Description:
By secondary structure, the protein is an all-alpha fold.
Amino acid sequence: MSAPADQTPAPRTEARERQLAWIAASLVILFWGTAYTGVKIALEGFGPGPLALGRFAIGTAVLLLLSVVRVAAGNPAARITPLPDREDLLPIAGLGLVGITAYHLLLNFGQQQVPPGTTSLLLQTAPVFTTILVGALGLERITWQVWAGMLVAFAGAALLVIGQGRTLSFQLSALYIVGCAITTSCHFVFQKRLVAKYGSWKFTVWNFLPATVALLPFAPGLFEEAQQASWETWGALIYLGALPGALGYALWSYAISKLGPTTCATLLYFAPLVAFTSGWIVFDEPPSAMAIKGGGLTLLGVMLVNYARSQAAKQAAAT
């Protein structure tokens, strides 16, 4: 009689963890969707470089604090010690410089002109650049269906870049955001071995540390601008570092571990909706007709790419 009773809590526990993972993923979409509005607000008081430093100094501090709290609560997976192996220190630091330092500098410079919703849509092209990279490295064969999806996505991105403004500087700002998509695709492709070896939490913390150190040349500017910044810009900076930054990465790692990367990647399609809505509410920036057309093409192309890749992976597994 006792054996069945002992076995019943397991499914309930698994179901409960999946529920928590869905909540975590939903919070991340909310955090990341509103982050672009937060950047826009913070840029009113901080320059692109000082903003990136302030954001990740806060994010790194929060991650370290969360590590201590989680280890004290009995979760050994949250340990960030010992140091990564010597041969992995340079790759981890390099990925931090590309996927965090370069990404957020490009993002901040781009968002000086690009609205939050358009920024989020342009960043949806990251899976397309990821596909190109894995194909170039010979890690995956690119089918004609994938190429067709990429062409649709790039057509939408071109409409977003060209149609957002008539001045060259504004268009270049949109290209900064495209650069963000390229850096995040590199970060995603090359981190897989290291995440498998060290776990997502330890890898994230050690990614944040060198990325934050690399931003220290902006410390004098941050110190000077912080004295003049309003409470709104300070609030945006703290929000960006704590929630979309540290907590967002932590919750996303948990969601992926329970729901799988494919499900979580699909949820990212809702981020532009959150970004457009928050930008509309805060800045009174309704999406233009060109943004709707370009954004629709971009999302359609990315969905076609992901679908074609998943079908190709199933066929490869079957054979």
